[in-house]
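Q: Could you fold this chain for me?
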Amino acid sequence: MNRLLVAAAVAICVTSALPAAAQFQKPEDAIKYRQSAMFLQGTHAGRIGAMVNGRVAFDAKVLAENAAVLDAVIKLPFAAFVDGTDKGNTRAKPEIWRERDKFNAAAAKAQEEVAKLNAAAKTANLEQIKPAFGAVGQACKACHDDFQKPL
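A: Sure. Below is the predicted structure, expressed as structure tokens.
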């Protein structure tokens, strides 16, 4: 039942991601939306990382579930990098708006690597999952290094 609710929520989020930019009433709403999506990404990537790095027991089913959620939510935050959301409670660097093509390419790379991780997770083979997870980490780090202000 819990998984069904998560799947339904993810499906709703994914189907609403593209028109999301038009739905933000205020810049703060867009910022909160993308931060929430990034939080979900970090949570599910962290669960996968704990298994990949041996901090928790490997459970192929749980890892695959987390990879599927990550594959859905990786697409969400990018609709919320709209004009006017470069100020306020955000760590987004101005380079996002100045170098939009580079930012979009970094987002696409992260999405591509997460899709590969999701495919690897379906094999239940940890030796295939590990390098795919490493590539996700590299793609996320590269984007954060270029486009996110440090804490």
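A (continued): Residues 86 and 94 are 6 Å apart (CA to CA).
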